[in-house]
Each structure stands twice: as C-alpha cells, then as structure tokens.
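Q: Structure tokens for this one, please.
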Amino acid sequence: METTEVNIKAVVEREIKKKDGILRLEPAWVARDFLPPGRRLGLPESQYELGERGGICERWIGSTTKADNKVEVPFEGLSFLMLSSGERITLKDAVENAPEAIMGSEYSKTHKGLNRLPKIFDYEERLPYHIHQMQEHAKLVGCNSKEEAYYFPEEVEMGKSPETFFGVHPYIAREKKYDLLLPHLIEWKDDSILQHARAFKQISGDGFHVPAGTLHAPGTALTIELQEDSDVFSMMQAKIGRHKISKDLLYKDVRPEDKEKFGEKIILEMINWEVSGDPYFYENRHTPPVLIEETKQAGGEEYWIFYNTLSFSGKKLIVHPGGKFTSEDNGVYNILVWKGKGLFAGLEIEGGNFERDELLVTSGRAQRELKVENRGERDLIIYKFFGPDINTDLPMLKKYGR
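A: Here is the predicted structure, written as tokens:
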C-alpha cells in the first residue's frame, strides 16, 4: 500500500503509539560492484549476485542514507518501517515527517535527522586503500563527511586477509612527502600504494575509530560499522588480488572542474595527514570494548564499542541465558539483534531472523525503563546505535604524542 507525504506523519505517530514507541525495521541490502561479497550476511546463496549491480556486500541498519552506486536502484540503502497497516514508508521519510515523535522535541530542534549510519560490511577481498572526504570537501559535492568506526564481532570467519592498512608511515606526513602516493594514482596499475601504509591485525571483539580523511584499507573480517550518514569515498588502489578497480572511483566524489584542473593530485588535498601520519595511530584509534560499570546487572552487561567521538556512539548488550536486563538510555537509537533470542520490551527478537532482528527505539521510549529478556540457551547479543550528542559521557582515548 502506498502512502503520501500528507499522511506519513499520522501513520508513523499512530504506529508509535500502538507499539509503545518501538518500530520494527526491514533489513536494507546494498550491492557493490568493485569487489565480490564475502557471503556471511545470512542470505541464501542465490541472492548475493546481482549481475551488473555486483553483489550484496553490505547490510545497512536503521538507515536514512541512500546508497550512491553507479547502477542506481530506487530506495537502495534506505530502511523501511515494518508497519502493521501495510504502508510502505522509509525511515528517512518517517524521521522527516514526524521528527518529534521519533527523536523527541528537544533533540529534533537541533538535529535535522538521525545523522548516523550503522552497517555490516562483508567482502571476500580486502577493501581498496581509500579515504572518506572531510566535511570541507564533501560539501563541495553536496554530501556530508564520513567519520566511522569498526567492531569485529566474535564467532565469525575472519576471511583470507584479516588485517587493515591504516594511514601512512609517519615520516611521510612529518616531512610532507605527500607526492610519494601520486605515481600510484597516475599509473593506476596495481596495489603497490600499500607499501606506504602500516597494517594492523583484525581481532574478534575489537575495533578502531577512523576520522574522516583517514587513509585506510579494511581487511576481510566481517565488520559492524557505525558512521556519519554519508556514502562519500575516493578509492586510491588500482587492484585487489585479481580484481581491477575502476579509476572512476578515484574521482567519485570530486567536482569535475577540480578533476580537470588538478588531476590525481586533488585527492592528496583531501587526506587528513595529521591522523593518517600519526606515529601513535594504534594507541589513539584502537577501541576495544569498555565495560559500562553503572549498567552492569545480574542478568547481563553492556560495553561501549563505538566511542572516542561525539559524532555517534554504540553499545554491545549481552544478556545471559535465562537472564533479564533493564535498559534505559538518553535518546533515540536502533538495535541489531546479533545472536540469540528473547524479548525486547515485550517484542519477540531473534538474531539472524530478518523479520525480528532490527528495531528503532524512539526517544520517549528509550528514556523509560524497558526489559530485555533472554529466552534462549546462549547469550543474547544486541548492538545499540546512537546518533550525535545523545551520549556525551563517552570514553575518550588518552592522546598519545600530544
């Protein structure tokens, strides 16, 4: 059933009231055409390959961001509400038309949207060395910057290249030898640009914080990612294994006039050299889980897994078999049920069940106590994702080298 802008607000507010502030969401699958999928997202094998669109490599969670792919598909990347009345409404339209009901009256006065994008990315090969533009450059093409953070969930096959290349060797930034990267961008023939970067092992149950403009080439571990709501990037590596990367992706979010005037060198202007060349990159960006002591209960516990920034934040909630957990948070968030099954404020939830593993908790409901109950025989694992300025008491890493 279709709906219109005129009645979206009424439909959403009615559903929020009916469901006591919690909305179910449909999964949003996103294809990429530059590398093959890792096939660990739980889809039937036959559904990963999509012809000229490439393959399903990502699942976006509680998304209000449209995927920016060469082959454009209506609504790709956008989450839909799972409404009992049958209307087809995206979460983006719901937030834009009923901001107070979803985000709360105070928060919606200062924030135009949820302003964050959680996702799972799943590739067979390591991703190419690339950056996501900082705001000063992203705004030139009408987009937002893309700060991001990673968490590598446990009990998942790590893939064939479980290490991420971050930044550059510190001397390159210290001595401003930025042009060392330029021949690789001009020649566009192989993966030798990685000789200028440092690799860090991906460890299950571990993570990293990656500011916009940071050079990086994520490894093959299945990754839970939380980021600003943007899909900007510039790929800077010509080849991954046997896969050639289109040079069009180097200029994906570069203005035509800048490409014409500066060529490949314009990309070097978009790099955050301070972060990329930080000799203490690991110490300043490595984000292992941090136990939240004040919410620890007999039935379970929470950990900060996305922190060190006010742009977004995220928690991992573990409820033990037979256990119950009382949850109360500062504002709107959405969840992904990763493992196990149980009840979330009375709603049935189950990891891996695409009809029961994704919820949006509105601000009003988040700030009231809700019960999470494990009704399975293993730990119930839930990831919570928050936008900017909702959690301000976050752990911040000690700043080494400052």
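A few notes: The first strand starts at residue 22 and ends at 24. Residues 5-19+26-285 form a domain with the Jelly Rolls fold (CATH 2.60.120.10).
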